[in-house]
Amino acid sequence: MSSPNSEEQFISTTLSQLSLEEKVALLSGSSFVAASGVPRLGIPNPNLLDSVNGVKSPSFESTSTLCFPSTSCLGATWNPRLLERMGKTLAGQAVEKGVSVILGPAVNIHRDPRGGRNFECFSEDPLVTGKLAAALINGIQDRGDVAACPKHFVGNESETKRRFYGVEADSRTLREIYLAAFQYLLRESTPKALMTAYNKIDGVYCSESPIIKDILRDEWGFKGCVMSDWFGTRSQLPALYAGLDLEMPGPSVFRGTPLVEEVKHGRVNMEVIDERVQRVLSLIHKTADSRGIGRPPVPQSELSDLARLVASEGIVLLKNKDSTLPLDFNSNARIAVIGAAAKDPPIGGGGSARVAPQYLQMPLDCIISACTDPSLVSFSIGCKNNCTIPEVELQSTCAKNSQPGIDVEYFVYGSSRAVLEEYLPSTKTTMLGFLKPPLTQETFSHFTVSTTITPKSSGKHTLAIQATGAFEFFVGEEMALVDDMQPPPSVEDFLFVPEALERKCWVQMEAGKPYAVKAVVQPYVPAEETGEPRVYSAKLCFEEAYSKDDLSLEAINKAKSSDVAIIFAGRNAEMESEGFDLDSIKLPEDQEQIISDVARASKKTVLVLYGGNPIDVSTYEHLVDVILFAHFPGQEGSQAITDILTGKVCPNGRLATSWPVKLEDVPTFNNFPAKQRIDGSWEIQYAEGLGIGYRADGYTPRYPLGFGLSYTEFRCTDLQLSWIESEESLAVDLCLANTGKIDGHEVVQVYISERRAVVSRPKKELKAFSKCWIEAGKMERVRMVIDKRTAFSWWDNRTIGGGERWRAEPGDFEVQVGGLSQNFVLEEGFCWRGL
Q1: pLDDT in tens, 170-210
Q2: What is the enzyme's class at the highest EC level (predicted)?
Q3: What's the CA dihedral at 692, 693, 695, 700 to 10 degrees?
Q4: Per-domain residue ranges of the chain
Q5: Which of 402, 443, 453, 439 lies closest to 423, judged by CA?
Q6: Disulfide: which of 54, 149, 184, 271 matches 65 by Cβ 3.0-4.6 Å?
Q7: Which of 50, 112, 229, 245 is catalytic?
């Protein structure tokens, strides 16, 4: 695309050349992954793809990509400089794939440890969230031809009924916690786009909420493009007038031809259309810069090293009894590696952020490679971790043409003969948003999926089907399953919650004998229309019989004969995903049992946990010697874990979200997730107000915000406070010494509390942090400067003295850094409203 040098020239010239139809077309997507361009003027359709953990391909044909750790792991790095470097690498990946806008980072808050999408977000704290998000955004946008799109503005802290619930929260809670995260990132970065949330605020969907204009635009001065989440636009004119520039995805549900007609009949002001179009054109211009062309590709080794470094800095050592770690893999110690995750590590959570990695390392392989004598390493699965029955292995199936796969037949009403037959070299069939000709919504009656399955062993095996409509399932001539699928599953169930679709049965089968299976599936009919495409799908699943007791006994015996057992456990993408929230923060019972049994049998036990959310470790915490929290660590996670186990890397991750002792302890326990009201609407109460995580009075977590052990020791001394008059800021100075024998990182955290507050305030609040590298035996002087708004203000929603605003009264404040504290007197108060 050729364009004038300045953005202003490009917008004014292009706007003058556009027809009404072209202008309206720019206000919605052209496809599922692209906004709209103007082909007549040589303006291409910009591609908008997930995510900050790995950039997907617009074609979906080759989706493998450099896979970084989940965002919760990024939060645990506490390292803005590292995340800015990561952002620059993501931008390079985006350019290689033809992606203009990276949809992320997610800036919602870890409000409750059951939040299904918490792994995509940074922290329970808005300052940590905002500063790290800003660093990532600055990195992504550094080269000038890629945009970041932080999301979801605002209040999407839960996945249960996320498209329908209304957030019930007072303005102070929204301002100081949930809006604050976005406000912090906008102070330190200038994202070129921003995505609205699905939910409602004050009874109005975010895509048409006054907060777009009143807060984001007018108060904070955001000038970028505001787009909806996918199918998150819920109206035509309210969203348009509220300030939603871009409806995604395409083709349009609410704009397009109907909006053209509204303009032609004078019901929509052309100035509003032009204003929205200018925002979209600005985004197109900002991502059409050619400065990235001709840059040499980054060597794969450098990409891998960075992914490993990010994982290493986010992995948190939670327990290390008697300095069990680091392990000496050069000794003659016998090592038992236990757990399915040792061979199939969960490197990312589920949903739209999930990406296929360039490669997958196995922890077992990395441990074997690190050992001088690999024969000393043994493995046992212990227990299976899958929540649903696995998809049947393709090679175990046989279609009518004697090839592995399935036969699919499609039928219309009034005909007993199929109107379309096909063979698929797969074990599933899907039509998402389309029907294969000659099928239509009015005529499509049902489809069948058939094949044969040949088991490798004899036993009572499990057969299952995941279908998006009512079905009958046959094994041979016998009906094995029938389900009317009421209420009907949703597109989100199909995409994110396979358990909602799965129905299973148990069939006695003989090894080597083929069994004919057939599913008859009716079309999907949504329970309520949200503008999403309809989906028609069926997947065949199969699992051969096995003995849980045998798996457990094998693991216990290997642990008994070892010097150390390393257990890999935790959650995977089936357990933490977009589309649903967790019911519990405990691990599945089978995992808890095998951890306990192995720990009792082993001389030393190292537990490596995966997941994006806190885990209740009460059952086995006292039994294991080490707990290492790996998060979802990306494609280099297995090597990063091994580096920490062996001492090659000194652990330096710090929790960005506190871990409760048990779920019932969390301040949000009774306010999460959304609940249905008598009138049928859904709401989620934020009744705990400001008291989430470490801010809550009376809440004593097992592991607090900022917690993380190291192989070395640090000491803070000589805390000094001073006021910088010219900057209206508080300077915090201290000495940080590494008193141990190993070089390492420490995260210095500054908390401030008001000793005699005018209104109720949290017991303490994080106001600054700095990650520092200190060599063993050395000392560094650390300075952090905190502007007065960040340090002292609170949102005054008492509507006195001129309305709601940020305010600070003169008063006595306590500044805490580690075990040190000093008082600071703010002599003059202030109030303000802007950014």
Answers
A1: 999 999 999 999 999 999 999 999 999 999 999 999 999 99
A2: hydrolase
A3: 130
A4: 44-243, 302-385+551-682+690-695, 394-543, 714-832
A5: 402
A6: 54
A7: 229
